[in-house]
Amino acid sequence: MPAVHETAYPRLKHSISNEELHESYTPSADELALVDEASKGTGPKICLLVLLKVFQRLGYFVRLRDVPKPIAEHISLLFGVHYGAIEWEAYDESWTRRRHVALIREYLNVRPFDQSAQKITEAAFRSAAETREDLSDLINAAIEELIRHRYELPAYRTLLDAASRIRSCYLPLSPKSNCDQPFRIIPCVRLSPFCLSSGRIAENGSPYPMPTRINGCPWTGFRINGGSRLPAGTAGTSRSSKSIAGTLRCACLRKRPRSCRTAIWS
């Protein structure tokens, strides 16, 4: 399983140069005008600006208590307020934060991650899985599509679990594959290519290696129950072999950026 730093999923750096702070986290005149209109009081204005600038950088909302101190302090000092004077944790649990989240989405024209975004994500996974092998490549492809459609990014674990589930329906064969590849179970079918092509079924009805009970094999059209065998003379025919060959994909690896170094939305 790839770690978050092995993908293009945006993250905040805890060590930030002064140049990057000024370039990436200094609010514009329009953003300051938005804050003045939306909030009253210095504390809520600072929190809204931190939430806005971090969301522009990441593409998803985080708790302000988790924002590296240099970023939050850079914005608070613009108002002459020290970092420790702001109640960051209280803001995270407040209704004010919920209102600010909706305001930022409207201001940047970004939609929350919903069922439509999930469909876009799964389509990106399937498309990438046809030519790529690494989960990180699938995740990067989904991130690119979500940003293109201006959807908020979900949690990294959400992308990782969905990518793992969809990739399990593909069996890529590449030069780096192990010699036991033909004996690996294809999860969406629950049969290995070797068993499908050779018809090797144990006495208990289980191809090796296979679970003991399988119903409805979509590649061969046979129904296999507890003690049954594949019909004689049918396993390994051109029909099953062609369907297997047509389903197996070869993977080509392509490295993507490991982190987002620029603002996603402005």
The profile of the biggest β sheet is: none
Figure out the total of helices: 11
Give the SSE string: HHHHHHHHHHH
The number of strands is 0
Q: Return residue spans where pLDDT drops below 50 for at least 5 consecutive residues.
A: 172-183, 196-260
Helix content: 40-55%
Number of domains: 3
Beta-strand percent range: under 5%
Secondary structure class reads mainly alpha
User: Shape, please?
Assistant: elongated
Rounded mean pLDDT score:
76
Distance between the termini: 32 Å
Radius of gyration: 26 Å
Protein traits:
266 residues; mainly alpha; 3 domains; 11 helices
Structural overview:
The chain has 266 residues and is mainly alpha-helical. It has three domains: 105 residues, no CATH class; 53 residues; 84 residues, no CATH class. Helices cover 45% and strands 0% of the residues. It contains eleven helices and no strands. The longest helix has 17 residues. The radius of gyration is 26 Å and the shape is elongated.
Question: In summary, what is this structure?
Answer:
Helix content is 45%, strand content 0%.
List the helices and strands and how they pair.
Blueprint (H helix, E strand, L loop, with lengths): L17 H8 L3 H10 L3 H17 L10 H9 L10 H5 L2 H14 L6 H15 L5 H14 L7 H12 L25 H6 L39 H10 L19
